[in-house]
Write a structure and sequence with these properties.
By secondary structure, the protein is an alpha/beta fold. It contains twelve helices and eight strands. Helix 7 packs parallel to helix 8 and helix 8 runs parallel beside helix 9.
């Protein structure tokens, strides 16, 4: 059975009350599973130690995070601490370390044969750099976990389906041939962090192992899955990872307020089933999943609930429990969803659909043409 990692101290990683990166998202998922009568057994991980954080982050940066977490009124803008994206509150370093410890625990359980599939109910802080907080991310839990895996001689494929480019993970492993990164995201021409182009293929020994699929705004689900298969299957076939690590952000949903892709919950179900197939086919079933972005409280809890159900092989229930809707009515809005899946045709038809689809296919093919020369 898959292992699920969670600790209440994840909730200490909270920005301002109106900040989009809210711990309520995970609370809503766990509560929805409870109300639906779905079995949930949570394993509480330890926090990451300073030495473990230092496998990825500079010591000066770690000191600055600790200082600003004690004195939030004294920002350190040179480290991205106290900015509009990353406003600091007391104790945030402790919450971030607990989250990093959760993802690291999952990696170690897989490496040591204690689990083959692990869902980390948090994390996915893929924008943090070695010495910079960015995009709501203080510690790059994904990179810390991946580094532990590669330190054991394992090859890791990292798949990022968050709508924003996984720039922090890519940067940290840019010259590492033990790590394949593949990020599908809305094009940086339109969206933070403004990176993730097809020419970003890696450096040195890592060249050819860093893949980016920058999608046009208003990309719909069928085309998203088509392009994913175009790139992911040959990349994983070539790389043959020991472990597949996935950042399962939910912000490519059409209702997300911070981006412009048009995935539905039905798309996400198909996506999660594909990811399980990839793991079983290419990494002997070894799969570490984290959460990530997702800023529609109406959509994100439903998407991550679907992830949980698909991972465990439970039936996909459709009607949302009335008690859950009532409890979270403030967060769900005046017209809350009533079903786990979106209704048919939930948004207006996109006039440029075929043009967008052709662009994405051509972009994916150009990426494959470029990288195939490096795989010979």
């Amino acid at each position: 059975m898959p292992v699920v990692l969670y600790h209440p101290e994840y909730g200490a990683y909270a920005f301002d009350a109106d900040h989009p990166f809210s711990p309520l998202r995970i609370e809503m998922v766990l509560d929805l599973l409870h109300e639906a009568g779905v079995p949930v057994e949570l394993v509480a991980p330890e926090s990451a130690t300073q030495d473990e954080l230092a496998t990825v982050h500079d010591s000066a940066y770690l000191g600055a995070v600790a200082d600003v977490s004690r004195s939030p009124a004294d920002p350190r803008f040179e480290y991205g601490l106290g900015t509009q994206d990353n406003p600091m509150k007391a104790g945030m370093d402790l919450g971030a370390a607990r989250i990093a410890g959760g993802t690291l625990t999952g990696a170690r359980m897989i490496a040591e044969g204690k689990a083959s599939k692990v869902l980390q109910m948090g994390g996915g802080l893929h924008h943090a750099r070695a010495a910079l907080a960015s995009g709501f991310c203080l510690f790059n839990d994904l990179a810390i976990a991946i580094r532990d895996l590669t330190s054991r001689g394992l090859h890791v494929a990292y798949l990022d389906v968050d709508v924003h480019h996984g720039d922090g993970v890519q940067s940290i492993f840019f010259d590492d041939d033990h790590v394949l990164t593949l990020s599908l995201h809305e094009s940086g021409e339109y969206l933070f962090p403004g990176s993730g182009w097809t020419h970003e293929l890696g450096r040195g020994m890592g060249r050819g192992f860093k893949l980016n699929v920058p999608l046009e705004p208003f990309t719909e689900g069928d085309n998203y899955l088509e392009v994913l298969d175009m790139v992911a299957q040959p990349a994983l076939e070539y790389f043959r990872p020991d472990v597949l690590v996935v950042q399962a952000g939910a912000d490519a949903h059409f209702a997300d307020p911070l981006a412009d892709l048009l995935l539905t919950t039905q798309t996400y179900e198909a996506l999660f089933r594909r990811i399980l197939t990839y793991a079983d086919r290419f990494s002997a079933g070894r799969l570490l999943l984290t959460l990530g972005g997702g800023y529609s409280l109406e959509a994100t809890p439903r998407i991550w609930t679907i992830l949980y159900l698909v991972l465990f092989g439970y039936p996909i229930f459709e009607n949302l429990p009335a008690a859950w809707i009532e409890r979270w009515r403030k967060e769900l809005g005046p017209d809350p969803p009533r079903t786990l899946h979106d209704p048919p045709h939930p948004y207006e038809t996109i006039p440029r659909r075929e043009e967008i689809n052709r662009h994405n296919r051509l972009m994916a093919q150009r990426l494959l043409d470029a990288v195939s020369m490096l795989w010979l």
